[in-house]
Amino acid sequence: MHQTLSPFDISRIRGLAPAQERAGAEKESPCGACSVRHLTFCAPLGEEELNHVTRIVQNVELHPGDPLFDEGEEATNIYSVTAGAMKVYKLLPDGRRQIIGFLFSGDFLGLADDEVYAYSAEAIIHSTLCRFPRRKLEALLERYPRMERRLLGMASHELAAAQEQMLLLGRKTAREKIASFLLLLGQRAAQRGQTANPVSVPMSRNDIGDYLGLTTETVSRTFTQLRQGKLIALLPAGRVDLLDVEALREIAEGN
User: Which InterPro entries match (predicted)?
Assistant: First the structure.
């Protein structure tokens, strides 16, 4: 569902201080000991190169609902998610919200063609990120082409994810969208080396609706239908057991 924000909400969001002032605790990042480095754009770097990265990076900690940066804010930093889950979204002129992506460990955000961020970013659950000052990172990318190639490759995957969302927002039914979404979350978890089934679904039904172009009620009703059809089971801590993956694939493909 597109969530309608009040004028107070809009002004509050737009008036927030820059992320570096409002983000939580920060400390120097021990890049060499990072448990998700193999997923990030730092993956191809050797020890000497990592030492240069460590000098410019800081850790940022966010609690659920904390904003990282806002659409239109000066794009002074680039971030890499090391734990948790983030959502990125745009505010439409009428105040409605369109979520354009969910980000997890290893994903990056904040890369901007212009001098400002093209979207807003907010923590879904407790999350930690590495923060790279944009200008300093650009200098490192020039110095270490392997890192630049890795970042470009990840940007290509981000574009593919945007195209996937366009398909989800196309002519699929609500049932097809939810089945596709659950399978996609499982696939992304497997790519991170995590459990693909049961799949972690940390976002709210409202967030899912704002991502898939559905109302919250339709999302909840569709989850209930899939559960009653014994295709999924709803588990504690926001997990969903995909009981019949093949049947879900059939639904996702419109069969």
Answer: cNMP-bd_dom, cNMP-bd_dom_sf, Env_Response_Regulators, HTH_CRP, RmlC-like_jellyroll, Tscrpt_reg_HTH_Crp-type_CS, WH-like_DNA-bd_sf, WH_DNA-bd_sf
